[in-house]
Design brief:
The structure is a single chain. By secondary structure, the protein is mainly β. It is 0% helix and 50% strand. It contains no helices and 10 strands. A 6-stranded mixed sheet has the order 2-10-9-4-5-6, with no helix packed on it. Strand 5 and strand 6 form a beta hairpin. The protein is globular and about 40 Å long.
């Protein structure tokens, strides 16, 4: 089991940047594929990005390609999501998830126009 805690969310203007972090506890973090999801008010949770255990394989949702970058530091048990050129439609609660099925509690991102 992996326990996850997101941080780094906040209020940012259109075009701005934020870096989300997801701190993991548990010995299985470095062997697990990790993911970012988001959920906007009134909408279903949706996939944002995914990264393999070694960091060599990354996938992104079409709506964030070129703007968001997922990365991880296994030595620090931490997952990251660098978000650039933010848009109002990126406003959502962002969650990290391990492929072992564990979810964090989420961090709120609000993009103002």
């Amino acid at each position: 089991q992996v326990q996850l805690r997101e941080s780094g969310g906040g209020l940012v203007q259109v075009g701005g940047s934020l870096r989300l972090s997801c701190a993991a506890s548990g010995r299985t973090f470095s062997s697990a594929r990790m993911n970012w999801y988001r959920q906007a008010p009134g909408k279903e949770r949706e996939f944002v990005a995914s990264i393999s255990w070694g960091g060599g394989n990354k996938t992104y949702a079409a709506f964030v390609k070129g703007r968001f970058t997922i990365s991880r530091d296994n030595a620090k048990n931490t997952l990251y999501l660098q978000m650039n050129n933010l848009k109002p439609e990126d406003t959502a609660t962002y969650y990290c998830k391990s492929d072992l099925g564990d979810w964090g509690q989420g961090t709120q991102v609000t993009v103002s126009s």
